[in-house]
Every structure is written in structure tokens, then in C-alpha cells.
Design goal:
The complex is a heterodimer of chains A (249) and B (332). Chain A is built from nine helices and ten strands. Chain A has 249 residues and is an alpha/beta fold. Chain A starts with 5 loop residues before the first strand and ends with a helix. Chain B has one domain: Orthogonal Bundle (ABC transporter involved in vitamin B12 uptake, BtuC), CATH 1.10.3470. Classes of the chains: A alpha/beta (249), B mainly alpha (332). Chains A and B meet through helix 2 and helix 3 of A and helix 6, helix 7 and helix 8 of B.
């Protein structure tokens, strides 16, 4: 089997006595959608934070594309092709929709110590930004301040910004959070279309979305991975049923 | 070709510009030369306020120590002139530095020294954020204040008088009108520079950092470097305004770096409109004119400034200029 794109081993992070992640090991292969599920407080968002470099790990190692990135700063990981979205929408509300995508593109178009030319009329940024907005279906909202977008549209924009950095791995923290049924299924369809183009580590609460998308699922409880496997295996795993699925369904 | 749309904004700005251009003529006609000096002071503070707005309004860095760079710029000019007049060396080792009264030398040095100071202060302060950033910038400025108080050679607490204004080939800066126009030209130049800056790629990064620095990092920006450079540019701008101030007053003293000055520059930015290009200019004019005219009637003019600030913060959060003239500014 080929070396996985992302390989995390023994990741731990404690907040005082609380072990948010506890010896967590996890792989994401090229072109795979790997979902991480677990009850509230299982440490899913913490794990995403550790993988993206936002949080420093107490222990463990992370390999990405064969390189040890354990101690690497967040922005450097982004340049290696690791992009994340946030559970709580964090787009730039005062920028327009297009500005938001353009700045994500700018992040990967050389340094930004450029002081003279207007960024808002730069075709090198605006062209690709338009394309990505077309792709996610926000093209007609390009000039609207992001603050005026609906919640669902902001979630789409959130994803568009992550995609604009041309990542090889997307870390998506609950992309359907707070969405209605319709927006949610729209998002699931969109993610399904991404399959094969980019690997995805998906943290999600919506079980329908998870089982519709995931190639593999890891179940997290109190920071520990209690099971990893195909959706079928996870569905029938007794430990998982007891710890998690049994409560919800 | 420049096309001007006749909006409220262009009307206000053109009126302001024309007024500033003809002000010396009006003042001469009225035989009230003192207005020229007063408005020179406004232009100088406006320059400092615009530079603070770069980090405060665009970058979201609430610095409470901007007077450190203002005062440093002033002292550089003062000290160079002091040695220029005495014909003594400022520094003997490792190289001999002589003083100068030449604008083309002493002002760039003032800007450079302020920028270097901003790089040092910024490099440390920008490791913090929020209230801690406010406090650490304030602390650095107060350190500078007491440092210059302790410099007995340059007058300590009493400050240092300049014998005359700096000179530049052909133009007599001792003439108030000439000096006024030079201040105006430098302010307009700096505004133009800032206009390009905030709309450039660099400017987008700075504004992104203001709203969500974490996200900027996740997108792949090493935010610290960009913020630090922005801080340095702002410090350099304040240094230039300090150099002008030293020339206007023909006097420098540690009070230029007192936290009161930092506070006043902050108030100017907030009053005029944070994150707008021209807001701080209006803020500086508003505050200094208010001070000038209210203090004719009462020495407790601050009593009126307080409520005015409260009203602005409550009802015109983008400042007087930002709220009423430039309602939806996007492009500076």
C-alpha cells in the first residue's frame, strides 16, 4: 500500500486534566474522504487544530506528503498543501465575497510585500477567484460584502477559500454546521464532486452526510480513536454502537 | 485621465484641499499670520494620525505609544541641529558623525531612526495582542519619554531649542508660508502613499489580519512579518511628522513623547474615522481647532471634548468623516 498523504501518530493534547486528544493515530490516503465522528467534546476540533498547526501538540508526530510537519508553523503547512475550514464560519466579513477568495489565492501567489499595484484589479488574483466562485455557485454574489451573505452562503465561501489555496488535503471542520436540510445536501453533493481531486479529512456531526461521503470513518471518544474502518464496519462495530451511534439513532 | 464623480466625498475633499491651499493667502489678507502656524500644526498632527491609522484602522493594532516615534523624529532633528550649530561630533566611535541642519540629511535620518525604533518596539510588542499590546506599546513610549528626560546633554526635562529651522537649498523654511506648504505637500504625498499601500496586496493582508489573523495564518500568510512591516511604516510616518514638529516649534522636549500625545493622536484617528484614509486628517483638524477655540473661553475645554468623543463613539462609530462622508468606503 502506498504511503498515506497524512500520517498522524500518537497525537496528544491536554488542557489541564482534560485530555482533548489522547494518543490519536490517523491516516488519510490520497484521494480519500476520511470522516472523523464522535460525541460532543470528543476532541474532533482539537485534532483538526493540531493537524493544521493552529494548536501545538503535547506529543505525537505528523507526517504530510512524506515530510515531518510536527513542529511546522501553520502558514508553512498551508504552503505544503494543507487547507482547513472552520466550524464557526470565519470568512472576512468586511471584504466582498470575491475579496475573500482572492486573498486566499494571494496567499499562494508568492509573497505579499507588494505595495503599489491595486490588488482588487489584479487579474492574476481576480481571474482564479471568479472561477472558484463559479465552481461553488457564488458567482452572482461576488461583489456582496461577505457579512451580507446567508449562513449557507458563508459556509460555501468558507469552503471556496480553502479550495482557492489549491490544497492536496482539506481539513473540513463540520462544513454543514448550522445548515438547513437543503443547503446541507447541496454541500454533500459538492463534496462528493471533489472526491478524487483532493483528499479530505471530514469532521462532521451529520451522520447522513458522513455515511454518504466517507470512504473510511474514525470514531473518536474522549480523545481516543476507538475504531477505524469502512462505513459498513463502523456501523456494525459493537463498541461504536455502544459509545456513540446507539445514543443518537 | 482623471475622472471625478461629483459625490459628497469628492466635494468635501476638494473643498478641504482648496481651503488648505489658499489658507496662507486668507491669513495674510486678514493679517492673522498666526493661523498659518496653527494650520501647520494641524497638518503635522494629521500626518502622525494618518500613520497611526495605518496600524490602528487598517491593521487593527491599537498602539498607545505612537508618540514615541513622533518624539524620536523630533529629537533626531533637534540633536543633529544641536551638533550642527556647535560643530561638534555626535558620535566618535566607531565612526565620526557630525550634526547637520540640512533638511535633505536630517529628515531622512529622523525617519530612518524612527523606523528602526519601530522595528525594535514592534518586534517585541507584536508578540502580544489586545490589551497587552496596548499596554506594552504604552510602556515603551514611556520608557522613551524618561530616557530623553535623563539625557542631560540635550536639555533633559527642559528640552532643546533649535537656533533656526532646518534649511534646504533655495527654500527658506524660516518663512511660515513656505514651511506650511512643505507640510501640506508632505501630508498629501504621504496620503497618496497610504492610498496605494492599503489597496495593494500588502494592504489586503494587513486588513485581513485586522479581521481574523488566525484565518490569515491558516490561508498561508506569515502574519507577524506583515504586521511588523506595517508597524515600521507607521513609525516612519510618525517620525517624519515629528521632524516637522521640531521645525515648527523650533524646540523639542520629552513632552512630545508623553502618553498624552499618544492619546491625542489616537483620539484624532477615532474622531475622524478609523480605517479611512482622510478621516484622521479631519480628526486632527477637529481636535486641534476645538482645543484652540474652546480654550479661549475656558481652560477646561476637555470638558467639552469628552462628551463629543462619547457621542462620536456611540453614534458615529466610523468617526465624523467615516460616518458622514464616506459611508461605505472600500477603496480608501
Amino acid at each position: 500500500m502506498a504511503e498515506p498523504l497524512l500520517k498522524a501518530r500518537g497525537l496528544s493534547k491536554a488542557y489541564g486534566a482534560l485530555r482533548a486528544t489522547d494518543e490519536l493515530s490517523l491516516d488519510v490516503s490520497h484521494d480519500e474522504i476520511h470522516a472523523v465522528i464522535g460525541p460532543n467534546g470528543a476532541g474532533k476540533t482539537t485534532a483538526v487544530g493540531q493537524l493544521s498547526g493552529e494548536l501545538e501538540s503535547d506529543a505525537g508526530t505528523i507526517y504530510f506528503a512524506g515530510q515531518d510537519i510536527t513542529g511546522l508553523a501553520m502558514y508553512k503547512r498551508a504552503h505544503l498543501g494543507l487547507a482547513r475550514s472552520y466550524q464557526i464560519t470565519s470568512v472576512f466579513l468586511q471584504f466582498t465575497t470575491e475579496d475573500n477568495v482572492a486573498i486566499a489565492i494571494q496567499a499562494h501567489d508568492g509573497h505579499s510585500f507588494r505595495f503599489w499595484r491595486a490588488a482588487r484589479t489584479d487579474p492574476k488574483l481576480r481571474g482564479p477567484a471568479r472561477e472558484i466562485l463559479e465552481q461553488v455557485g457564488l458567482a452572482d454574489r461576488a461583489d456582496v460584502p461577505a457579512a451580507n451573505l446567508s449562513h449557507g452562503e458563508q459556509r460555501q465561501l468558507e469552503l471556496a477559500m480553502a479550495l482557492a489555496t489549491r490544497p492536496s488535503l482539506l481539513l473540513l471542520d463540520e462544513p454543514t454546521a448550522g445548515m438547513g436540510q437543503e443547503d446541507s445536501s447541496h454541500m454533500v453533493n459538492f463534496l462528493r464532486n471533489l472526491k478524487g481531486q483532493v483528499a479530505i479529512l471530514l469532521v462532521e456531526h451529520d451522520m447522513d452526510a458522513v455515511f454518504a461521503l466517507a470512504d473510511r470513518i474514525t470514531v473518536l471518544v474522549y480523545g481516543k480513536a476507538i475504531a477505524t474502518g469502512t462505513p459498513e464496519r463502523i456501523r456494525s462495530d459493537p463498541a461504536v454502537r455502544q459509545a456513540y451511534l446507539g445514543e443518537g439513532d | 485621465m482623471v475622472r471625478l464623480k461629483l459625490t459628497l466625498k469628492t466635494c468635501v475633499l476638494l473643498t478641504g484641499l482648496v481651503f488648505l491651499l489658499v489658507l496662507p493667502l486668507i491669513a495674510s489678507a486678514l493679517e492673522e499670520q498666526f493661523y498659518i502656524g496653527m494650520f501647520s500644526r494641524i497638518l503635522i498632527y494629521a500626518l502622525a494620525a494618518v500613520s497611526l491609522d495605518l496600524i490602528l484602522g487598517y491593521g487593527g493594532m491599537v498602539s498607545f505609544g505612537h508618540a514615541a516615534f513622533f518624539g524620536t523624529g523630533a529629537y533626531v532633528v533637534g540633536i543633529l541641529a544641536f551638533h550642527g550649530v556647535e560643530n561638534s561630533a555626535l558620535l566618535h566611535w566607531p565612526l565620526t558623525l557630525l550634526g547637520t541642519e540640512n533638511v535633505l540629511l536630517s529628515w531622512p535620518v529622523a525617519v530612518l531612526v524612527s523606523a528602526v525604533l519601530a522595528a525594535v518596539i514592534g518586534a517585541i510588542s507584536l508578540r502580544t495582542s489586545g490589551v497587552y499590546f496596548i499596554m506594552i506599546t504604552l510602556a515603551f513610549a514611556q520608557m522613551m519619554y524618561f530616557f530623553f528626560i535623563s539625557l542631560e546633554k540635550y536639555g533633559g526635562d527642559d528640552g532643546l531649542s533649535l537656533l533656526q529651522r532646518n534649511s534646504v537649498g533655495g527654500i527658506d523654511l524660516g518663512d511660515d508660508t513656505n514651511f506650511y506648504y512643505l507640510c501640506l505637500a508632505l501630508l498629501i504625498g504621504f496620503l497618496f502613499l497610504c492610498h496605494r499601500l492599503v489597496n495593494s496586496r500588502f494592504g489586503m493582508v494587513i486588513q485581513g489580519c485586522k479581521e481574523n489573523e488566525r484565518r490569515m495564518g491558516a490561508l498561508g500568510f506569515p502574519t507577524y512579518r506583515y504586521k511588523l512591516l506595517c508597524f515600521v511604516i507607521a513609525g516612519a510616518g510618525a517620525g517624519l511628522s515629528g521632524a516637522l514638529m521640531a521645525n515648527l516649534a523650533e524646540f523639542v522636549s520629552p513632552s512630545l513623547m508623553h502618553w498624552r500625545i499618544s492619546g491625542e493622536i489616537l483620539v484624532m484617528v477615532i474622531l475622524g474615522g478609523m480605517g479611512t484614509l482622510f478621516g484622521p486628517v479631519f480628526g486632527a483638524a477637529g481636535l486641534l481647532l476645538l482645543e484652540e477655540f474652546l480654550s479661549i473661553y475656558t481652560e477646561h475645554w476637555m470638558l467639552f471634548l469628552g462628551p463629543a468623543m462619547i457621542l462620536v463613539v456611540l453614534f458615529a462609530r466610523r468617526g465624523l468623516y467615516g460616518s458622514f462622508v464616506e459611508k461605505r468606503e472600500k477603496n480608501g
